[in-house]
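Feature request disguised as a bug report, sorry. It would help if multi-protein outputs had a clear separator. Right now it looks like this:
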Amino acid sequence: MLKALSVRNLGVIEDVFIEFEKGLNIITGETGAGKSVLIGAIKLLLGDRFNKTLIRDESLPVKIEAVFENKFDFLDDEIKAEFDIESEIIVKRIIDPSGKNKISINGNIATLNQLKDIISELVDIHGQHENQKLLNPKNHLKYIDKYIKSDNLKIYKDKFSEYIHLKRKYETLKSEISDLLKNKDFLEFQIKEIEELNIRLPDDLELEDKLNYMTNIEKINENLSAALNNLKDGEINAYSLISDALKNISYTCRYLEKLKDTENRLNSVLYNLDEIASELYEYIQVDEFDPNILNELNARKYRLDNLKKKYNLELDQILDYKTKLKRQLDNIEVNEDEVQKIEKKLTELKNTLLNQGEVINKERKSAAKVICEKIEKILNELELKNTVFDFNLKILDKVDDNAFAEGEFLISTNAGFEPAGLSKIASGGEISRVMLAIKDVFAESDNVSTLIFDEIDTGISGKTAKKVAEKLKNISNYKQLIVITHLPVVAAMADRHFHISKIHDDNTTKTVVSTLDGHAQKEILAAMISGSVTEMSIKQAEELING
């Protein structure tokens, strides 16, 4: 149970301390007095986010402290040891003006997640937000699963977690293989592209010269022929003139020995001249010019140039690059065996999940039948006569953490009408009673020791209000209840009655919480009944208290 709550510097609350009792704790008060702030403080202890606008005095921190008593058997031994938990938990949450948190559990520093994990097991708050959750069919299956006591759903979720983990591994492996195959295709394409050109060194390096020669063959032949004419073939040519000069010098050498060296040098010139002429003959194209060869050479040069540009490499470097690509290709290994193993395991796990899901959904159908019968009975007690309450369990063909199913609560509050979704049928007052019935059904089976109802009586009055009050009193026999109400018939059932009011002092407004008993409680109930305290309203209050 929630034994005590201390709240400082939060909204209209300057400093409030409340000691709760077992059983039914009622909170009443005028609108804006701080009832919702008090609930907000408890929600902060459950791990809710803090809104800076709720700080009353921005120079001071917000301080919230609570004391819980329980056996805490549902907590892990590790958690108990870490936070020295035996029969009492003292939790503190301090939030400074900058929004920074300091959280402690039994004097030990705790994280926000640890706070959520521990305290959320102790308190369940029901208000308009929870009504909206009840109207959403996505939440309905959780109510059914909460009632089932077997470990089948936990086993399923563990297997499902294994399935998801393996499926992610499978998808990652398939993606990697796909990337490898794409890379393999790309490597093969590059290698093929290079090999198709059949690069020949050094021939392809001389391609530019070949093209230059063939493109200008006519000019080359013309100039070489002219040169040969000058050197040897013309009527007047250098070879003949030098030969004649050599003859003259050779004759003169008979008489002038010193010219012998000149004769030798000129003889060398004549020999070299003959060799040069022979070489020039070789370069003269005597065959008929073939334009197809020129086109082939141009086409090859174009392809080689494109390849060099594509890889930004020279021809010899491209050949080295091809060798490197082949090594990379040889190193690519596609692990198809591993893929097949995982596929087989996934199939086995899916079959296991299907079988487990069938067991779970049978349990769900049985549990839903019991739950719906109990809720119908309670709703009948709460003046929703002839109500039909049902649960539609739909089996799905997809592997998910809900064990192949989704479900929705259905209700009909009028005889002769088919049950339909809660959001389509139920009014605000009816939804509050449905939620109260659900809480009543689950109250004995869950770990939560404290239930908080924030205006559960919205939209009801008269006989219905009396029935709701009796139901709340009944639940309080095995759960601690903290109920915020505007109905005197509910407030009169209190084991402990707190009244919240606002007082104005030195241009400020603050909240005061009073514990009511005896005459003070009668006066508050009287004011709730008639709007003012009169003899008649006091008498009515006494009748409510005495039952």
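(second protein starts here, but nothing in the output says so)
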Amino acid sequence: MHKPLTAVALAIAVSLSLSACQSSSDSQATSATQVQNAIQTYSAETFFDTVSLTGSSFNKDGSKLLISSDETGIYNLFEVNPKTGERTQLTQSQDSTYSVGYFPNDDRILFTRDNGGNELYHLFVRNLDGTVTDLTPGEKTRASFAGFSKDGNTLFVLTNERDPKFMDLYKYDSKTFAKELVYKNELGFNVAAISPDGRFVALNKTHSNRDSDFYLLDTLKRIAKPTILSRHEEPAQYNAWSFSVDGKSLYYATNAKGEFRQLWRYDLDSGEHSLALADDWDISFMRFSESGRYQVSGVNADASTKVSIIDTATNKQLTLPSNVPKGTLSGVEFSKDEKSMSFYLSSDTSPRNLYVWEIGADNAKRLTSSLSKEINENDLVESQIVRFKSFDGLTIPGVLYKPKQASATNKVPALIWVHGGPGGQSRTGYSAMQQHLVNHGYAIFAVNNRGSSGYGKTFFHLDDKKHGEDDLQDIVFGKKHLQTLDWVDADKIGIMGGSYGGYMTAAALAFEPEEFEVGINIFGVTNWVRTLTSIPPWWESFKKSLYDEMGDPATDEQRHRRISPLFHAHNITKPLLVVQGANDPRVLQVESDELVAAVKANGVPVEYVLFDDEGHGFSKRANRITASNAYVSFLDKYLKGTE
């Protein structure tokens, strides 16, 4: 039995206890300060000194790789020596230029670019002497590449030159560029694939955001009429993807058999349908090497891409060499002789780097170092997948980035990030913009609200005609989840996003004005009444699907006014930053102009960054730096309160 303490002994005990607590508190504070001081913060200029790479293709003899790189500040074409990594710049454009690939039989190059972000892409040829030919001229023409014939003598091109609303299919002679109309698209089909010999064309037709079909067109028939191959009773998505290398089969994707998208094969001779590939998540893509020896497929597994490479001769998966670090594979391409493979590798803390591997060799060669030399990768943050319950008990996933400075004794402000769409998905992977914010002490929770893709068709359709309502509540409950974390400052949580995410940001400030302390709206819709009647003409084939999800402006104007932040901007009381591209064809500049004016009229702090040479997304490095600096400066002033 313990003896009772005397008054003096009790006082000594209390004093010792308080000293111990104080010592522990001081120790924790010191530890937090040490961690914070050990982490170097970097400027936006340093983060965007990181090089972004896209596209990779071998030339006919495998001696060159073609990529697009923004190392000069904007995407241009570069040739890479796969043995040495030496790069040669091929274009000097002031507009982002993206590689399509080499011609099959020589080293001429196909590439595409638009004008200042207007999304009117043309298809160009860089000839052997360095001159450039625009295959698809026209001030209002929009074009895209549809493939080469097996022998390389014909290239197929889609353009809307006849009718701005629809993309017709043309074939061009690879040498003379003489063209011929193959398919006059008057019914709103979308060309999905062309058989290797050019005879068959696979077409997709969207009926609604739940239902679509695919068709086969035989161009050798005197009266060419598409034949439906996907008859079904219950609404489901059926979309043709590609023909087999031998041209005997057509691969298509469908969610008719379950929650997730599977890959099926249609035999052109027998008419039989058979399962080709399935997983517990959506199949994202599948393609073959030149002869079909290697099959590359991807699965959207919980916001990350899981890639498999199968040797069809052995039906075994290729194992990459041990010197290739862990990460996400993308852009897998094979040389024409199938002896070499190029691929990109990336992670949350590392942007895409280009590798080349002589298949079977002990090591793969890394050809690029994309992360700025000034950045220590250990200062960057890996994400984690987090789930929480929303207002109605539905489980909502998200991608969470915890700053290394954050702890229970050093709580940090946080941001809910909302992806674009509607129907997009926040995914793992490197983002200079997000890492810049996290590096400067802002937690980011990229919430995949109901209506996001990648989690099954039921989840995807839960927000149909409920935008700015049920999906907004998911965002609010994402904020409430952040408030349960002991390392988050519960009183300093903002919201930001681009495109549809920008809309959700403005909606949150207008319809839930007390929930978030600040908002950053990046080219977001503010007036659905106007936006849904001013979509680009080339979206015609998808208009029905968009209306099924958002509502038809002819019948749903009242609801569109109800969910449009512009008409409720008088409710906005928290600081707002708006960023917009003047050439944006999807979200017109006037959307942002009017929101900024309305919020200013409330006497609320509002900042506006407008880029005269950008569209729906910022392709120029200088503009991305300006935008990222604006985010941090705005948040430091109005959320963190340190500026």
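Even a blank line would do. Unrelated, but nice: Residues 377-640 form a domain with the Rossmann fold fold (CATH 3.40.50.1820).
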